Fold this sequence. Notes:
Layout: E1 26-36, E2 51-52, E3 55-56, E4 78-83, E5 89-90, E6 93-94, H1 98-103, E7 112-114, H2 120-124, E8 128-140, E9 144-156, E10 163-177, E11 181-194, H3 207-212, H4 223-228, H5 250-255, E12 259-277, E13 280-301, E14 308-332, E15 337-359, E16 380-399, E17 403-414, E18 425-430
Antiparallel strand pairs: 1-8, 2-3, 4-7, 5-6, 8-9, 9-10, 10-11, 11-12, 12-13, 13-14, 14-15, 15-16, 16-17, 17-18
Amino acid sequence: xxxxxxxxxxxxxxxxxxxxxxxxxxxxxxxxxxxxxxxxxxxxxxxxxxxxxxxxxxxxxxxxxxxxxxxxxxxxxxxxxxxxxxxxxxxxxxxxxxxxxxxxxxxxxxxxxxxxxxxxxxxxxxxxxxxxxxxxxxxxxxxxxxxxxxxxxxxxxxxxxxxxxxxxxxxxxxxxxxxxxxxxxxxxxxxxxxxxxxxxxxxxxxxxxxxxxxxxxxxxxxxxxxxxxxxxxxxxxxxxxxxxxxxxxxxxxxxxxxxxxxxxxxxxxxxxxxxxxxxxxxxxxxxxxxxxxxxxxxxxxxxxxxxxxxxxxxxxxxxxxxxxxxxxxxxxxxxxxxxxxxxxxxxxxxxxxxxxxxxxxxxxxxxxxxxxxxxxxxxxxxxxxxxxxxxxxxxxxxxxxxxxxxxxxxxxxxxxxxxxxxxxxxxxxxx
Length: 431
C-alpha cells in the first residue's frame, strides 16, 4: 500500500513508549563501550622489496621511472645490502627532503639496510572504540504515557584521526481522551558530526589504495618514517615527505586532507485517532523529516590530485512531509464471516536543495576559505521538488478463518509522473 515510493521495499521502524510504575517517573541509564580491531588482515610476504626483477630499487626523487618503484618485484631482503631509500640519511636531512637537498648537493645519501616491514599496515591501524550513553525518563497512567531520552555516541575508528559523534534527544507521548479520542506524538533531534570521515574506494585519496593498490606500498617502506615526519625539512605544509610522488603520505591523507561534516536532523509525527463506533475509526497523521548537512573537504599542498591544495563546501537541505488519513471498518459479521475495509489518502512532499563550492588551488598553504582560492569554480546547484497525492482502499474478507480474499487499489498523482502514468492500480489478491 506504499505505492510508487516503495518500489524497492519499505522499512517499518517502531519506537519505545514510557515504562515505569504507574503514576511515578522511571529513570533508565545505559552505557556501553566496545573496542574494534580487524578480524583478519592480508598476509604480506616479507622476502622482496620494490624493484623490477633483478634491477635494484634506488630512491632519487620519488618520481623517476629508473627508480623501479614497482612493489615487491625487486631484490630479496638482506640486512647486509645497503640501498638508497627515501628515509636514508643525507647529511643533516633525509633522502626524501628534496628541497633542502637541492640547496645542499654536497649532502649525499647514505644507504641503509635493505629489510622488510610486512607489518606496516598493521602498525598503521589503531584500536578503535565506540562509547554509547543513554538516559531516559518515563511515566505512564491509565490515560497515557511519556518518554524523554538523551543519547550520546562517540566512535574513534581503526584508521587514525577518523571519528563520529552523535547526540540525540527523543520525546514521545500518547494520551487517551475518554473512550473515543486518542493522540500520539513523537519528535527526535539528532546532531551528527565528525572531524574526518575517510575516503573509501579505489583512488589516491584512499589510504587503502595507498597500501594495497596496483602500485601499493612496497614492503621495504618503514611506516614509522612516514608517521614521524609528514613534511619535508623546510617545507612544512608545502611538500610532503613520502617515498613516491604518486602516493600521498597516509598520515597527511588522514590528518590534513580531512572530510568534516555537521548534520542536524529533526523528525517526528503527530497522530490522532477517533473511534466513532466499536467497528469504525478514523486516523489522521502528519510527520516530517528535516535535515541540514554541512560538509567540508580540505586538501593540503602537494596532494597527488591537488598539487596546490584545495577546498570544498557542500550544503544539503532536505525536507520531507507525509500527511495521511485512514477510515477503517472492522466487523465480525457472524461466526463464519469477517471483514476489514479501509479507505484513505496521503500527501507526500519532498524538497531537496544542494550546493557545492570548490577551489581546486589555493594561494596560501593551510588556509581553507574561498578568499584564499586561486580560482574558485562556479557554484554547483541542484534543487528537487516532488509532491505525490494518493488515494487508496483495501478490503480483507475472511471465511471461517480458512479462506481469505484481499483486494486493494491505489491511485498516485505525482509531480514527476507523465500524464499517462497517472493510472489506477488495482491488485486483487485472493488466497
